[in-house]
Amino acid sequence: ERATHMLLYLCEESWSDDRLAEQVKQVREARLPIVMAHENDTERGGVPFSRFFETTPQELIAAGLYRDLAIACFSGLHRQVSLSLLAKAIGAIQRAQDSVSIRRSLSSMLSRKALTSVEAESSLTEASLPETSASVVAASRV
Known about the structure:
About 35% of the residues lie in helices and about 15% in strands. It is an alpha/beta fold. The protein has a five-stranded mixed β-sheet, with helices on both faces.
């Protein structure tokens, strides 16, 4: 299985470790699309997006990392919409029985500080993550 996307979860702990920047550089060199999830819920580590212009390595900003919009991850009733938009951005197709499972998997994944693997019919698989809170997941197709 080969990764088709990278999911970059942007929260208060993003960019606290140089290894995340190296992973992003490798993914950009491989020309994989990067889907960004911007956490807005402060209880889950959400911060204003402007913070990432202060903490992201300048070479990534200059190379256009933030040229594409990040998908906002809101709390409450809007959480399900946020998760659906993320699932769609990484290639999920809605099927009645799968859509709830995929949203639950993404919700569980984004609610933890460090990401682990996601098991859903959309075939999300874990990328090699450092043992920090750097939040990166690659999506692959079967």
